[in-house]
Design goal:
The complex is a heterodimer of chains A (361) and B (306).
Chain A: H1 2-15, H2 18-39, E1 47-53, H3 58-68, E2 73-75, H4 83-92, E3 97-101, H5 105-110, E4 115-121, H6 128-144, E5 150-156, H7 165-178, H8 180-194, H9 197-202, H10 208-216, H11 220-236, H12 245-269, H13 273-290, H14 302-310, H15 312-326, H16 334-359
Parallel strand pairs in A: 1-2, 1-3, 4-5
Antiparallel strand pairs in A: 3-4
Helix pairs in contact in A: 1-10, 2-7, 2-11, 7-11, 7-12, 7-15, 8-12, 8-13, 11-12, 12-15, 12-16, 15-16
Chain B: E1 4-13, E2 16-22, E3 25-26, E4 31-35, H1 42-49, E5 57-62, E6 65-66, H2 71-77, E7 78-81, H3 93-103, H4 108-121, H5 137-149, E8 155-159, H6 167-180, E9 185-190, H7 193-199, E10 202-207, E11 210-215, H8 217-225, E12 227-235, H9 239-248, E13 251-255, E14 258-264, H10 268-277, E15 281-287, H11 292-300
Parallel strand pairs in B: 4-9, 4-10, 7-8, 8-9
Antiparallel strand pairs in B: 1-2, 1-3, 1-5, 5-6, 10-11, 12-14, 12-15, 13-14
The chains are: A alpha/beta (361), B alpha/beta (306).
Chain lengths: 361, 306
């Protein structure tokens, strides 16, 4: 169990350096707060509501005008003419709720008959109907001005995707954030090499695999805590996970291991600590950009898209997003998973080969 | 059986020949020093013997094991204190020692007992539980040497064990190494003459990858005693005078602005007369008491410390 002894030492080195540790574990938190503050902010925004005006009368148009005057509501424009358009938006997540003004609305108002309205919503925000219903009722009563029987029908739909940006952002941020493991693992290895500590260990009967595991295992808790932070804080700022959270966790865990593999290779090849800590960011940041951490890769040139698709990061983000926003199953993300596992195994194999070479140059 | 034997051990880095066909035989229980300036090939030699570097040509045996074919066997028998202090800064002394001991397969009890002994010998017991990052240079060195010994290796490699220490700490470290001397085969590298002189049973002087002299410190100096060296500070030394000196004496070197002139049974008066009669002005002249440094200068024509 030599790897255990090396791992134990590295665990102590890592966890007894409070500044480095705070940086490592605090980064997900800072990351998520900055990004969700910059791009999120749903809580203070008016509720976006679609309106379907099937009636197409002057009265219904005036009613829509009243709705538009409510500051707490943001009526999506243009107003839909048919219910099917709004249904489509609801289904794809473009809308979370819409109000249907049916045929005969104007006539019913004129005749002071029972006025029917309908609200349809998807599962993105279960609290939405409870917030919107009283507003619509109040506007309707105000508009009608005389007590008329008002009937608002509520119905829920299952949306297929959740298109909230935060749900798109968090998987991307988590993958980007886990890439710090590249420099963490690379850094500790290079530091030990520069200070001769690795040479000392190499004069003991420890095998290459002992080093590989000894230098990566201590970071497993970092991966787990980081992912938990991304999901935990993410949920607090509005992330909702439709699929199996365990599956999403697994995907991020594998990309974390993959990043440690890259770190190991950098730790073996880099000549100085500065190289190991600085150089990786030259490719990490562009890689993350072209892998679609912040915006979809669909609009990118095909060459760049091709590069992104060949590398593991896009696959990790895509698979994680599929689970989070579409509830993809294990078999659904299997192609991405194969890609991730393949990369991880290849990187570790290369890491061991390079390390073995560095042991007896 | 010799503890260490090398056979035309050679290492090249591209066009640079760092170690050039070294043949060494070090007996069990011997303290052997490789003495030479920086870049002479000392560390490269040690790294090859510790299986960190592969020789380009030749090979070596440690306790009968071949460094190319049986590195794993060798790593079980040796202890190494590298030139860099190479300790784990966030761990305390006990933990540093336990790491190496346990990698060598020692039980917790063994490690504890042995670490206690070593911390006592090395004078580190009092600060044993402190993180070693805060240690002084001398303490770090001592811990580094203790780490090389925790698993009780039969051969100890100490690469520049007193590098960067102040004279007092250096002296203390020597005392500690001297205490180990009886029980171990030790191969030590140094560029401090006094260190090699004080500690070694035998010394090999190494320069530009080659061994230029080998023997006990006393032998090396005694061999050198036959030739005497005058260090002369003089003015008006013309090329003709230099030419004349070179034809008369076995060695004429410029060392630190002075002329170092060596020959067997060198006659002081004859030398100064020659200089005077040719118009040179002698400002000072001194007969050198031989040290290992003189041996080195004599052999290589350069000073060991740059």
């Amino acid at each position: 169990m030599r790897f255990w002894e090396i791992g134990n030492r590295n665990l102590k080195e890592l966890y007894r350096d409070p500044v480095a540790l705070a940086f490592l574990l605090g980064m997900p938190l800072v990351f998520i707060l900055i990004f969700s503050f910059a791009f999120g902010g749903q809580a203070t925004r008016p509720i976006s509501i679609g309106v379907v005006d099937e009636d197409q009368s002057q009265i219904s148009a005036a009613f829509v005008g009243c709705l538009e005057n409510i500051p707490a509501l943001e009526v999506a424009s243009p107003v839909y003419k048919s219910q099917s358009e709004a249904e489509k938006e609801l289904n794809t997540g473009g809308l979370s709720i819409y109000l249907l003004i049916p045929h005969g609305f104007g006539k019913a108002v004129e005749r002071q008959q029972t006025v029917d309205l309908a609200l349809a919503y998807n599962q993105v925000d279960p609290m939405l109907p409870q917030r919107v219903m009283p507003m619509v009722r109040a506007v309707a009563l105000e508009f009608l001005n005389i007590p008329v029987p008002l009937n608002i029908e509520l119905s829920q739909r299952e949306a297929e995707i959740k298109d909230e940006y935060i749900n798109y952002l968090i998987p991307g941020m988590a993958v980007f954030g886990l890439m710090i493991l590249i420099t963490s693992v690379g850094g500790i290895m290079v530091r030990d090499r520069v200070k001769g500590f690795l040479s000392r260990l190499m004069t003991t009967p420890a095998r290459p695999s002992d080093f590989i595991f000894g230098y990566t295992l201590p970071f497993i808790p970092v991966i787990i805590i980081s992912i938990a932070t991304y999901f935990g804080v993410g949920i607090l700022v509005g992330l909702s996970i439709i699929g199996n959270i365990g599956l999403a966790f697994l995907i991020l865990f594998i990309i974390g291991i993959c990043c440690m593999g890259i770190g190991m290779i950098i730790g073996t090849l880099a000549k100085s600590e500065e190289q190991a800590l600085g150089a990786p960011w030259i490719f990490i940041v562009p890689l993350v950009m072209i892998s679609g951490a912040w915006w979809p890769v669909e609009q990118m040139p095909s060459v760049i898209k091709g590069i992104a698709e060949a590398l593991p990061f896009l696959h990790a983000m895509d698979a994680c997003r599929d689970v989070v926003t579409r509830g993809a199953s294990f078999t659904g993300i299997l192609p991405d998973l194969y890609w991730l596992i393949g990369w991880t195994m290849a990187l570790f194999a290369l890491g061991i080969v390079l390390f073995r070479r560095s042991m007896a140059r | 059986m010799d503890a260490i034997q090398t056979f035309k051990l050679t290492r090249r880095f591209n066009s640079l020949v760092a170690v050039d066909g070294i043949d060494l035989k070090i007996a069990e229980g011997e303290l052997f020093s490789l003495l030479g300036p920086n870049g002479a090939g000392k560390t490269t030699t040690i790294n090859m013997l510790c299986c960190l570097l592969k020789p380009t040509e030749g090979t070596a045996q440690i306790m009968g094991y071949d460094i190319i074919k049986q590195p794993f066997k060798i790593k079980q028998t040796i202890g190494v204190s590298p030139q860099e202090t190479a300790i784990s800064e966030h761990l305390n002394s006990w933990e540093n020692l336990a790491l190496i001991g346990k990698i060598h397969g020692m039980s917790s009890d063994e490690v504890k007992r042995r670490s206690g002994e070593l911390l006592e010998v090395m004078g580190l017991m009092e600060r044993g539980k402190d993180r070693v990052g805060k240690f002084s240079g001398g303490m770090k060195r001592r811990l580094s040497i203790a780490m090389a010994m925790v698993h009780n290796p039969s051969i100890l490699f100490l690469d520049e064990p007193t590098l960067g220490l102040d004279p007092q700490a250096r002296r203390a470290t020597w005392e500690h190494i001297a205490q180990l001397k009886e029980r171990k085969t030790i191969l030590l590298t140094t560029h401090y003459m006094e260190e090699a002189d004080f500690l070694s049973d035998r010394v090999a002087i190494i320069d530009e990858g080659k061994i230029v002299a080998m023997g006990t410190p006393r032998q090396l100096k005694a061999n050198f005693l036959k030739t005497r060296t005058m260090l002369i500070l003089a003015e008006n030394i013309t090329p003709e005078i230099m030419q004349g000196l070179k034809s008369r004496y076995s060695q004429v070197k410029e060392v630190g602005g002075k002329l170092g002139i060596s020959d067997e049974n060198l006659d002081f008066r004859e030398l100064t007369d020659y200089l005077h009669s040719n118009g040179a002005v002698v400002r000072s002249a001194a007969l050198e008491k031989p040290t290992l440094e003189d041996v080195f200068i004599h052999l290589t024509g350069k000073e060991i410390r740059e």
